[in-house]
């Protein structure tokens, strides 16, 4: 492809609103342009990268028996009513009405649509298992689109769905998917980890996220320093063995703590360690009831664990106004002693080992000291309700926990029968009995993967594409296109490489060499071939983008050399 014919609008300056490297470089190098917050046009170079990533995905999905289809983006609300996700998914679901005032959703995912397709067409165990997948644009109304392609309102996704007659069959395909995803991200040149995760609004229980390690990741990964254990911090179980101090129980006493609202302030004011303080947070569960969650002062409540323990669809912190109305006190002064009977108290496991602790007295500017669980307040159930911390024992018993940041690029779920039972997707088993299909779903953020690749593969000069996803294998640059010897040789090289099925961007522009070289580094293809002063001798210079290494090569050896480099790149 001649560069003069391509649409590559590069920028010299970093866009002011681009916070991270992938966003900055993809804009500067002319790979994309923003149309609105969280909405981008993919320009020709980005389109070529996307096609490479999609091809890798297709190859790995086809290898495990996936069949590609394409479902509509516009989804009738009636399907979402069947699973009640129209009401539970949240404000991220983009909803529109047609001219007849009928409700539709712009699909963020396709569980309802694919389940409706399969229930209408599959009725026998003989036709299962079945794996269907698509690559398609999705929509989510993000409250705060940011970081370019990492958090957008419109994005490209690969979503797959499997249907089974047994849990064993689902387990087998789930593991196949984990293997396929590992192959996909490895082939894309990514350093990633598969971590235990929460299913969120998708339903189901067993699930893993694929995280690309990066300092700009919005997710925290808890991993063992001595094993392959890894989990999203929301899901990492805590297995600390607590010990109860041997202290004589002190009497319960109310003390004044004027303007001491945080754990740190109360701890310092009363001269007690944070681990002796009890932190009480009021949660609203499924918009129906209130639950008071109590953890130790040096720990943080994990709302995902709270939601899972209560088997709730949604939990959220009560507002300051709700808290004040129910407890007659400000948030910093609430506690579990003497509260209303209709408010359930649940507590983290560590709380039951607190002796002579401190908690809010449900009166603004007052706290209790000498607090002892069970004597002074009753807990309906103790459970692991806190976030794991660095230095905690690894849940698998090997090593201790460390933290890293990660970008989620893939997610696999065992859905079970949530959707099939809601939507009556059934089949007849060997005995002619009706059974609900068992389901799994599996997603990859295709456009997000492209951004993650750039986050891990760049330097101060620009992008460094892995050979597997690069827009072009070679950037061919004649120093002076007006020099006959250089132009003739460049034309010959372009034709020869192209005929060998190598992709080449031929910089035929009337630009200074410095501009061409700077653009080549910015665009980031693996190999730069420079045709210069030795053109008449049939010698060109090769520069490797990743290492910066340069060397001269006779034109007759060029094809073999380029193929060798790309194979080892």
From TrEMBL:
Its EC number is 6.1.1.15. InterPro entries: aa-tRNA-synt_IIb, aa-tRNA-synth_II, aa-tRNA-synth_II/BPL/LPL, Anticodon-bd, Anticodon-bd_dom_sf, Pro-tRNA-ligase_IIa, Pro-tRNA-synth_IIa_bac-type, Pro-tRNA-Synthase_IIa_type1. It comes from the Bacteria. One of its GO terms (biological process) is prolyl-tRNA aminoacylation. It catalyses: tRNA(Pro) + L-proline + ATP = L-prolyl-tRNA(Pro) + AMP + diphosphate. Residues 48-466 form the Aminoacyl-transfer RNA synthetases class-II family profile domain. Pfam families: HGTP_anticodon, tRNA-synt_2b, tRNA_edit. It is an enzyme of class 6 (ligase). One of its GO terms (molecular function) is catalytic activity, acting on a protein. Belongs to the class-II aminoacyl-tRNA synthetase family. ProS type 1 subfamily. Consists of three domains: the N-terminal catalytic domain, the editing domain and the C-terminal anticodon-binding domain. HAMAP family: Pro_tRNA_synth_type1. This is Proline--tRNA ligase. It comes from Calidifontibacillus erzurumensis.
């Amino acid at each position: 492809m001649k560069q003069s014919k391509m649409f590559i609008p590069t920028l010299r300056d970093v866009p002011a609103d681009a916070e991270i490297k992938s966003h900055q470089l993809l804009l500067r190098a002319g790979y994309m342009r923003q149309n609105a917050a969280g909405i981008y046009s993919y320009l020709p170079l980005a389109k070529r990268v996307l096609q490479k990533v999609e091809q890798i995905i297709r190859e790995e999905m086809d290898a495990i028996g996936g069949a590609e289809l394409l479902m509509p983006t516009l989804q009738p609300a009636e399907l979402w009513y069947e699973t009640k996700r129209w009401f539970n998914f949240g404000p991220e679901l983009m909803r529109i009405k047609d001219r007849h005032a009928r409700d539709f959703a712009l699909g963020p995912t396709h569980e309802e649509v694919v389940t409706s397709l399969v229930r209408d067409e599959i009725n026998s165990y003989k036709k299962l298992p079945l794996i269907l997948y698509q690559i398609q644009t999705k929509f989510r109304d993000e409250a705060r689109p940011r970081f370019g392609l990492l958090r957008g309102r419109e994005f490209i996704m690969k979503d797959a769905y499997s249907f089974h007659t047994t849990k064993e069959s689902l387990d087998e395909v789930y593991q196949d998917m984990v293997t396929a995803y590992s192959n996909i991200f490895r082939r894309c040149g990514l350093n990633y980890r598969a971590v235990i995760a929460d299913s969120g609004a998708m339903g189901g229980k067993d699930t893993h996220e694929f995280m690309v390690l990066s300092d700009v990741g919005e997710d925290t990964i808890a991993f063992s320093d001595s094993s392959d254990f890894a989990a999203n911090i929301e899901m990492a179980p805590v297995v600390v063995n607590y010990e109860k101090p041997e202290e004589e129980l002190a009497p319960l006493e109310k003390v004044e703590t004027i303007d001491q609202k945080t754990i740190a302030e109360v701890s310092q004011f009363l001269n007690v360690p944070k681990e002796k303080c009890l932190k009480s947070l009021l949660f609203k569960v499924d918009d129906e009831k209130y639950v008071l969650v109590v953890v130790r002062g040096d720990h943080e409540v994990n709302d995902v664990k709270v939601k899972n323990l209560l088997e709730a669809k949604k939990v959220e912190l009560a507002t300051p106004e709700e808290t004040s109305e129910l407890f007659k006190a400000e948030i910093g002064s609430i506690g579990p002693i003497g509260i209303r009977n209709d408010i359930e108290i649940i507590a983290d496991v560590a709380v039951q080992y607190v002796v002579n602790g401190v908690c809010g007295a449900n009166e603004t500017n007052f706290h209790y000291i000498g607090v002892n669980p069970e004597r002074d307040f009753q807990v309906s159930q103790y459970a692991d309700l806190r976030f794991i911390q660095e230095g905690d024992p690894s849940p698998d018993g090997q090593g201790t926990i460390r933290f890293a940041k990660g970008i989620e690029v893939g997610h696999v779920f065992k859905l079970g029968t949530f959707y099939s039972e809601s939507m009556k997707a059934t089949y007849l088993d060997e005995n002619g009995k009706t059974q609900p299909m068992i389901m799994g779903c599996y997603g990859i953020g295709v456009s997000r993967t492209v951004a993650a690749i750039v986050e891990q593969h760049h330097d101060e000069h620009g992008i460094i594409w892995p050979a597997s996803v690069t827009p072009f294998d070679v950037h061919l640059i004649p120093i002076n296109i007006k020099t006959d010897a250089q132009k003739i040789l460049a034309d010959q090289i372009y034709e020869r490489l192209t005929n060998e099925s190598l992709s080449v961007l031929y910089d035929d522009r009337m630009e200074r060499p410095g501009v061409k070289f700077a653009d080549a580094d910015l665009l980031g293809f693996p190999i730069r071939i420079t045709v210069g002063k030795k053109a008449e001798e049939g010698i060109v210079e090769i520069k490797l983008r990743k290492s910066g290494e340069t060397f001269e090569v006779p034109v007759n050896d060029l094809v073999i050399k380029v193929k060798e480099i790309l194979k080892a790149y």
